[in-house]
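During the second year of the project, the team shifted from modelling isolated chains to modelling whole assemblies. The rationale, set out in the original proposal, was that interfaces cannot be judged from single-chain predictions alone. As a representative example for this report, we include one of the complexes processed in the last quarter. Its constituent sequences, exactly as entered into the pipeline, are reproduced here:
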Amino acid sequence: MHPAEIEEEKHSGAKHKTHRIALLGNPNSGKTSLFNQLTGLRQKVGNFPGVTVEKKTGHLRLSDGRNVQLIDFPGTYSLHPTSADEKVVVNALCDVQSPEFPDAIIYVADITQLEQHLLFFTQLLDLGLPIVLVLNMSDQADVAGGKEIVKILERRFRLPVLALSARTGSGFTQLKTEIELLLNKGQSFFRYYRPGEVEIAAIEVVKKQIPKLEDYQALLVAHHYNWLTSVPDSDKEFLREAIPAIGFQSLNLQVRETMQRYNQFTPWIHDLSVHGGADGNKSTTSRIDRIFTNRVIGPILFALLMILVFQAIFSWASYPMDWIDGSMTSLGAWFQDIMPEAWYTNLLTEGILAGLGGVLIFIPQIAILFFLVALLEEVGYMARAVFLFDRLMQRFGLNGRSVVALISGGACAIPAVMSTRTIANRKERLITILVTPFISCSARIPVYTVLIGFVVPSVTIGIFNLQGLAFMGLYLLGIVTALGSAWVFKKVLKSDEPGFLLMELPVYRWPDMRNVFLTVYERVRSFTVEAGKIIFAISIVIWFLASYGPGTAMKEAKSEAIQLATDNNLDADATADLLAAQQLEHSYAGILGKAIEPAIQPLGFDWKMGIAIITSFAAREVFVSTMATIYSIGSQDNEGRIIERLAAEKDPLNGTPVYTTATSFSLLIFYVFAMQCMSTLAVVRRETRSWKWPLFQFLFMTGLAYISSLIIYQSFLYFA
Amino acid sequence: MRVISLPEFATRQSGVIDRFTDDRLAVKMMSMGVFPGRTIELVRKTSFGDTLYVLVDKRALAIRKKEASCILLK
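Output from the structure prediction step:
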């Protein structure tokens, strides 16, 4: 929560308690649009306790001054849940002590889908909480017809019903008035479902053990006590004995209850002619799907869309990224000019500004990717991608939505990892997050270019350039490894969710741009604030390591370099390059590079490469500039020069070249596999809400890199 | 009338749901509006025929062949 909000709550807390209202409804009911209409930018995204289910909360001030906290729960079909998202809802509603337990409920139903959307509603009715039924109307729906339906539903359910358009915002003044009235209301005594004998007996058993439950809450506990967080272990123990003892067959009774609810409302709801324009929508959807989910054309269109997404984050994003990069550089130069030459100037220009630039540089890619992905989600297309690629991705423990992450990973793993948030299945999402960084991102390109340019001759075989083939080989290696390790994770990781697919393919509709922009805003905000602070901190640490050394080592290195430069009559540029090389060697990073040399020697790397591997942690492309600095070609670093310099590098002891083919291939493989990007780790931490997974990912990827490089290098030595 | 399971359908064939052979899947399907008495139409299959596109009361759903085989129709 923002400090300002806490402050606000404290103030108002003295006068009013903050009321909590739950926003509930089926997926695709327009709930998100309604939430965004009500709260706008006054919303915050967190997680439900203990799980990685996204929890959106927003604040609302009523005209009478009361403060309302609105919780947007995940879209739910039933209180007999089958997914982690739905379990969150049952956990919150079965526990009066829960920080999510609401004072009242706003239930959103799509007016054209009442036959489906009322099931969950009738379950909520039985909880006895004050509730308002909101009928969300699409633009085409007949408003006059809507009024008639409102009247009928009000009579049937004996509670307030109102029709509005979550998209245009019409009907919202009435909703706010209704919320005020709702909060003054007490418990409702209207119950929809009539439990049978066994269910009544179970309710009694549960209530004797856990008092103060509503009947239906008690029934839910009888069904789901095994995973409910509010039921203490001792009670679980007791219920495990007592519930089956009375002949309570949970699944069978769930089926019966659900069927009875449908039987109660389907006969009369069917007579309400709410279809009208919606039928038109549905047939339009059928027509579009004939093309988009066609077994041949569908995948081709998907591929085209993905090429567009890739193009956007790979090349369009480079304009704003270059601009950010340039601005940061000139800002740094400007500070260097106006400030005295001192450590704090360096800290500001090379530490803080570079760190800030390292965070900001990702924003264009994140914004563009989420704009496109949110648009595809809004329109209803992404569900079709899941349908088309379900079988293929299932083999690797992935999901159709994972394709977006894997393809975006070709530009940058950071937005790619963030895009997995729409994957509902926890296990599939986690696997996608874990394997996406194997896809070669754009930061690896400079490294590949230099090393391939060095070891692979630029000859043409047929129509293929050998260097190009090597490039493609590295990309393929990344893709194959991503899928292969996904397959391994699928076998190894446990899942608490049943692995089945039953998914609604929502009606195609025009995107609600407010939803799209709020998604982009939230993703950018959460990246900059939550992952950004980690990236910023680590880049300052790396800057410090590369710029400072212990004791007087740096000073000595400096005077030594100057001495050497005057002895050899070097010009100003060459002197500066030599100085930078000497200083890097004697810095903490240099010391670290030398310290890890024994560990990386079996891979064919020396301490200079060790330094480059360490500084690569800021971003992989830093490898090239670090190499340039080490080899004193900093001020004129271009790839050709580095390649020449690498070729000339000799072992000081026996005079053999350092950059052999073996070493170069070993280094290439290392860069394909190793997890060297702290920004990605920071984002994985943000997305999985723990250090466990980024740590695992780091060890797994870097371990694989180490072993592969070892095998490559040693076999080169053996066969050569 | 002969009772058949959904994957045995030809594309564009429809039938009325009679019952389910698995209670766990039945709970999930019913919560999504797939319950006995409703008409279900098999619209198309994916390339390998493993995932089905069905219409239940005009709502489009994607379902795997394996789970669809627990839906019995009359």
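Residues 197-271 of chain A form one domain. DSSP finds 32 helices and ten strands in chain A.
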